[in-house]
Amino acid sequence: MGLSLRSWIANEGGKHCILITWLSVSAWIFWRTFILYCSGAEYHYLHKMLGLGLCISRASATVLNLNCSLVLLPMCRSILTVLRGTRQVSSKKARRLLDKSKTFHVTCGVAICVFSVVHVGAHLVNVVSFSVRYSDEFPALNVAHYRGQSVPGITGVLLVLVLFLMFTASSHSVRVGNYEIFWYTHNLFILFYVVLLMHVVGGALKYQTNVDAHPPGCIPANQTRAHSDTWPNQEVDGELVAESREMSLVCKEDAHFQPHFPQTWLWVLGPLCLYCGERLYRYIRCNASVTIVSVVRHPCDVIEVRMLKNSFKARPGQVSPTLSSAVMNSSSCPTENKETFGIHVRVVGDWTACFSELLLPDLEHSEILPMTNQRRYPKLYVDGPFGSPSEEVFNYEVSVCVAGGIGVTPFACIMHALLDEWRRYKLQRLYFVWVCRELNSFYWFAELLCGLHRKLWEQNRPDYLNIRLYLTTAQELQNLTDEKYRPLHSRLLIGRPKLKLLFEEIGRSNQHKKVGVFCCAPKGVSRELHKLCNSFSASGTVFEYNKESFS
Ligand SMILES: NC(=O)C1=CN([C@@H]2O[C@H](COP(=O)(O)OP(=O)(O)OC[C@H]3O[C@@H](n4cnc5c(N)ncnc54)[C@H](OP(=O)(O)O)[C@@H]3O)[C@@H](O)[C@H]2O)C=CC1
Ligand code: HEM
User: Fold this and answer.
1) Which of 53, 248, 316, 353 minimizes the number of CB atoms within 10 Å of its CB?
2) Which ligand is nearest the CA of 518, by number?
């Protein structure tokens, strides 16, 4: 299948428009600042002293200002969640763009790191220039106290250190392997901003305040014309000296220099206050611990925790970063009929192992106790809920949900909502593909799937839900033993799904329609799905790709 322009625009258009705008703005402010410092009259003497190092350090600093303010905005999750749910963001396109907020954050973060390297490199050259080109003529311009002195910037060194820690701990392998390290190191961002705001009040680089009374390169009043032939910077500034002589430019006063008002404050303060306000709101909102109603151990090291929290409301599909740092997807949301909500946690690392140990210390299987007779569970705090791509499943006539292993949880939440009431949504047909390594994994939600299947058959909509379960490690056909799971028997297939064939089939039965594709699965699956969504479809169907990301 080749690339289809229509599909590509539907999937990548908005994202690339934002990227191009961001790149253009960054390039423009870099270039504008570069030119200003290279040829601006007020920087003439400073430029003579520092050369290209001045232009590059200042231009990169402006790009850093822009990105240090932008990087926080996509992380104002509560504000984005509110925006997502309001009429202001009424188009699906805009909501899908909001789902790319994490990608935009990472792009700005990487830009901060790259431009920091450029900035630091240029300033290292400046430190040497300040030292070896110590100006006896304009002492106010110097940072060094004497020729040969190198002055290191403490705040600059600290910033580099914090950024290095944040950058290394943000790598994909750390995020996947040890989320806690990423999370706690990432919270150094507040130290980063404090030091950044201190960094810019240093005022090492000064501009000339009196270019009218002292045009750059003018001849000092106390020097004769003959004397001015030996102008110390004649070679560097030959043109200017010749010109000033021609125009008989004589300095009316000595050059005065002054540090800039730190512009970083203007760039950063708004987003920083907004983000801190949002964190404070989130802190207050999640401050009341939840009541754990039940903890159930499922096959394949999965535990289900059902909870209750006053006035906790979530739209199906939303995510809740739960308990200190772990981000999880609710597997069921509170509804009108049921106030509790649940999460399914797969025990894969030290954090989840510890979590499971605290909740189910010595019990083999499950524990569901009456509220009045509850065990003493550890206190659990839930942050969120926050917007997520899965919310859009209901807003297409046809949606395809592809889950891998525990990635099924956001879709389980969707199924719960459909089980509650499926008629209220635009959705008319849901393809549900679930790929697992072990047969037992299907038991996590087998009851839910059968319940929804039964309800739809009873209400005369057997075509509404199309379930396909794939078991990848088995060689021969196996099945869920329990008779109550009979509807799933014929829907269980062996091996990995043939996604291309599936797309062709869906395309044939939904010609010229827009189909929403939702993925919460390992990278290999999501990559293949993304490619298929951008591919040409003979049936004229456009597949819009949406991805749930947890790292
Ligand atoms: N919702 C949530 O709360 C959370 C969701 N997740 C998400 O869930 C995903 C799945 O996690 P996990 O349970 O560990 O998944 P698994 O590693 O157990 O993989 C699930 C299935 O996907 C199959 N698979 C892997 N690659 C491909 C491929 N290229 N094509 C077809 N099938 C493939 C595997 O088949 P095979 O046996 O052949 O490899 C396996 O059967 C994670 O990647 C993450 O994105 C993670 C944490 C929390
Ligand atoms: C080096 C590149 C960076 C990468 C790869 C990166 C990655 C991430 C990711 C993946 C998240 C989301 C965490 C989650 O949802 O679980 C995040 C959150 C965040 N990052 Fe970054 N980041 C980077 C740089 C930065 C920088 C430079 C700053 C600020 C100085 C910053 C500040 C934040 C903040 C404030 C959050 C939000 C935490 C929250 O409220 O949940 N990041 N980052």
Assistant:
1) 248
2) 1
74 lines ligand 1 (CB under 6 A): no
> pLDDT tens for residues 74-104?
999 999 988 887 666 678 888 899 999 999 9
Task: At 99, list the tokens.
Answer: 């789902």
Q: Which of 186, 268, 279, 549 has most ligand 2 atoms within 8 Å of its beta carbon, as the pocket-test mutant?
A: 186
Question: Which long-range CB contacts under 8 A does 40-43 form with residues at least 24 apart?
Answer: 40/207, 41/208, 41/211, 41/215, 41/216, 42/207, 42/208, 42/209, 42/211, 43/207, 43/208
Ligand having the closest approach to the CA of 344: 1
Ligand 1: residue whose CA is nearest its atom 4:
407
CA 22 to chain centre: 15
Pairing state between β 398-404 and 514-520? parallel
142-152 pLDDT, tens digit per residue, is 887 777 766 77
CA distance 300 to 289: 28
Is residue 471 lining ligand 2, measured as CB closer than 6 Å?
no
Of 36, 80, 32, give the one whose Cα is nearest residue 54: 36
Neighbouring CB atoms inside 10 A of 437's CB total: 14
Compute the distance from residue 131 Cα to the ligand 2 centre, in Å.
Answer: 37
Q: What are 101-139's pLDDT values in tens digits?
A: 999 999 999 999 999 999 999 999 999 999 899 888 888
Q: Which amino acid is at 360?
A: L
Higher-pLDDT residue of 2, 188: 188
Ligand closest to Cα of 281 equals: 2
Take residue 464 and report the two structure tokens written for it. 């509404």
As a whole number of angstroms, the distance between CA 22 and CA 542 comes to 27
CB 330 within 8 Å of CB 341? yes
Whether 343 is in the pocket of ligand 1, judged by its Cβ within 6 Å, is: no
The half-sphere exposure of 428 on its side-chain side, counting CA atoms within 13 A, is 7
Record the pTM. Answer: 0.88
CA atoms within 13 A on the CB side of 334: 12
| Cβ 102 under 6 angstroms from ligand 2 | yes
DSSP 291-310: EEEEEEEETTTEEEEEEE-T
Question: 297 forms bridges with which residues in the sheet?
Answer: 303
Count other Cβ atoms within 10 Å, centred on residue 167: 15
Closest CA to 502 of 413, 433, 436, 423: 433
Which of 498, 495, 501, 518 lies closest to 402, judged by CA?
Answer: 518
pLDDT tens column, 151-202: 778 999 999 999 999 999 999 999 888 888 999 999 999 999 999 999 988 7
pLDDT (tens digit, 9 = 90+) per residue, 347-367?
887 778 888 888 887 655 555
10 Å CB burial of residue 355 (0-12, 13-18, 19+) is: buried
**CB 335, CB 420: distance < 8 Å:** yes
User: Which ligand 1 atom is the nearest neighbour of the CA of 437?
Assistant: 41
Residue of minimum CA distance from atom 5 in ligand 1: 407
Q: What are phi and psi of 87, to 5 degrees?
A: -75, -20
Q: For the CA atoms of the chain, what is the radius of gyration? A: 31
Which ligand ends up closest to the CA of 272?
2
Query: What atom of ligand 2 comes closest to residue 163's alpha carbon?
Result: 27
